[in-house]
Specification:
The protein has 445 residues and is an alpha/beta fold. It is 36% helix and 22% strand. The structure holds iron/sulfur cluster (SF4).
Length: 445
C-alpha cells in the first residue's frame, strides 16, 4: 500500500520545477562542508539557496548518525519536515548525510513523505533531483554557511582506523584524501571570499595522503596552504596520535600562519581501555608525544577529547585518566560519555554503566580541567595576544586567539567594545580571566 502511495507522490511531483531550496545541516563541521559544497553546486546551476526553511519550496536535511543522542535529534527534525511535506508545504524533501547512509532501508520503511533518502556524497544526485530535466554543470564555488572570515577545510573523507566505539567508518567508508591541487584551489577561492582562517578537518587529518601519495602528506599540503594570499591562520584539528608525523610540528614552528594549536583526540589514558578501544597507542606513548610537541613549539595549545563510561571502565581506569590529565596539563578538553553503537567493535561488550555514572565521571574530568584551564588563563593576564573578532554585540565584542577553535574552546571578551569589525585581527591586552574566557581591551588596531 505504502509503495503505491510513494510512487504516486513521486510521479505526481516529478515535473514540478524547483527554483529554490533550503538546507538544514546537522552534526559536525565535516557535514557542514558537505552542505557548503552541494549548495555551491546548486546555486551555480540556478537553484536559489534560501536561509529560512519556512520560505523555501523544497528542503534538504543533511543528517548526522554518529551517536544515539544525535540520531534522536535528527529523526525529530526529519519527522517535522515530513509532516510539512505531507501538507505539500514542500515540493520535494531530501534527506541526506550520515543517518541516511547508515539507516537507509529503515528510514525509507518507517518515515513517510520523504521523497529521497540519499547517503553521503550525493551531490550530483541532489542536483539531478532538483534540476529535473534541466541541463546542469558539475562545478560550483563552495557556498559558505559560516561567517566569511573563517572556513573549514575538509581534506579527506572516511577513516581507516578501527576504533572500537566509532561508527563513522560505517557511514563515511575508507579514508579518501582530496588532491592537494584541489584543496589549494579551494583555499584560494575561500580567500577570495574573505576567509582569513582555515580550519583543517577530517576524520583523521594526520592520515592525509597515505592513500593518494603513499605518504603522510599533511606537511606538504600545509607548505602550499601557507602560500595562499589572504589566509592568515591555519588550524589543525582531528590529528591521530599513532604514527604522528612530527614534520607537522616543524611546519608549525617554521610558519607563523599555522596556529600554535593542535587538536588530537586521545579518548582515554588507561592502557586496558585504550587496548579495548583499539587505539593502537599506550599512555606513555601519548605522554611522550605531547612532551615532544611542547619541546618543539613554545606557547602551544593542545586540545583533546576523551570518552568516559566505556564498557569495563573501572574507578581505577578513571583515576588513570584523571592522573593523565593532571600530568599532561592540556589546554582544552572535551569529554563525551560512551554511546553503544550497533555494528561497532565495542557493541558486543554491552553498556553496563548507567548514564548517571557516566555523567558523574564526565563531571569529575571536567572539574579537574576547569581548574587547569583557570590556572592557564590567569597566567595570561597582562600579556598581549592577537585576536580574531568573531562577533560584535550591542555591549561587547568577542573573539578568539590562535589557541582557540570555534565553538569548543575559549573566547576573548572585550566588554563595552563595539567599534570592532567581525573578521578583523586586533592586538588585545589581557586584563582578566575566567575558566573558559579571557577579558581584554584593545591594545592596538
Ligand atoms: S580515528 Fe577512530 S574515532 Fe576517529 S573517525 Fe576514525 S575510527 Fe572514528
Amino acid at each position: 500500500m505504502i509503495k503505491t502511495k510513494r510512487r504516486l507522490i513521486k510521479e505526481d511531483k516529478n515535473n514540478q520545477e524547483i527554483n529554490n531550496t533550503s538546507v538544514i545541516t546537522l552534526g559536525c563541521a565535516k557535514n557542514l562542508v558537505d552542505s557548503e559544497r552541494f549548495s555551491g553546486l546548486l546555486r551555480k546551476n540556478g537553484i536559489e539557496i534560501i536561509p529560512n526553511p519556512e520560505e523555501a519550496e523544497s528542503l534538504i536535511i543533511n543528517t548526522c548518525g554518529f551517536i544515539k543522542a544525535a540520531k534522536e535529534e535528527n529523526i525529530n527534525v526529519i519527522l517535522q519536515a515530513a509532516e510539512l511535506r505531507r501538507k505539500n508545504k514542500y515540493k520535494k524533501l531530501i534527506v541526506t548525510g550520515c543517518l541516511a547512509e547508515r539507516y537507509n532501508a529503515e528510514l525509507k520503511q518507517q518515515i513517510k513523505h520523504v521523497d529521497y533518502f540519499l547517503g553521503v556524497n550525493s551531490d550530483e544526485r541532489i542536483l539531478k533531483i532538483l534540476m529535473g530535466d534541466r541541463k546542469y554543470e558539475l562545478t560550483g564555488e563552495r557556498m559558505l554557511y559560516t561567517p566569511s572570515h573563517f572556513a573549514y577545510m575538509k581534506i579527506s573523507e572516511g577513516c581507516d582506523q578501527k576504533c572500537s566505539f566509532c561508527a563513522i567508518p560505517l557511514m563515511r567508508g575508507k579514508h579518501v584524501s582530496e588532491p592537494i591541487e584541489k584543496l589549494v584551489e579551494e583555499a584560494k577561492s575561500l580567500a577570495a571570499q574573505g576567509v582569513k582562517e582555515l580550519i583543517i578537518i577530517a576524520q583523521d587529518s594526520t592520515y592525509y595522503g597515505l592513500d593518494l601519495y603513499k605518504k603522510r602528506a599533511l606537511p606538504e599540503l600545509l607548505e602550499q596552504l601557507v602560500e595562499v594570499e589572504g589566509i592568515e591562520w591555519i588550524r589543525i584539528q582531528y590529528a591521530y596520535p599513532r604514527k604522528f608525523p612530527m614534520e607537522i610540528m616543524e611546519m608549525m614552528a617554521k610558519h607563523p600562519k599555522i596556529c600554535n594549536y593542535i587538536d588530537i583526540p586521545l579518548q582515554h589514558a588507561s592502557d586496558k581501555i585504550l587496548r579495548s578501544m583499539r587505539r593502537g597507542v599506550k599512555r606513555q606513548e601519548m605522554e611522550d608525544l605531547l612532551l615532544s610537541f611542547r619541546e618543539k613549539i613554545d606557547n602551544l595549545a593542545i586540545r583533546s577529547t576523551f570518552i568516559v563510561g566505556y564498557p569495563g571502565e573501572t574507578e581505577e581506569d578513571l583515576a588513570e585518566l584523571l592522573d593523565f590529565i593532571n600530568t599532561v596539563q592540556l589546554d582544552r578538553v572535551g569529554v563525551f560519555t560512551y554511546s553503544q553503537e550497533e555494528n561497532t567493535g565495542a557493541h558486543i561488550l554491552g553498556d553496563s554503566l548507567s548514564q548517571e555514572v557516566k555523567d558523574e565521571r564526565r563531571g569529575q574530568v571536567m572539574l579537574l580541567q576547569q581548574e587547569i584551564s583557570l590556572k592557564k588563563n590567569t597566567a595570561k593576564i597582562g600579556s598581549t595576544l592577537k585576536v580574531l573578532i568573531d562577533e560584535v554585540l550591542a555591549d561587547k565584542s568577542i573573539g578568539r586567539t590562535e589557541h582557540d577553535s570555534l565553538d569548543v574552546d575559549n573566547i576573548v571578551i572585550f566588554e563595552g567594545e563595539t567599534n570592532l569589525k567581525v573578521g578583523e585581527f586586533v592586538e588585545a591586552k589581557i586584563i582578566d580571566a575566567g575558566e573558559y574566557e579571557l577579558y581584554a581591551e584593545v591594545f592596538e588596531i
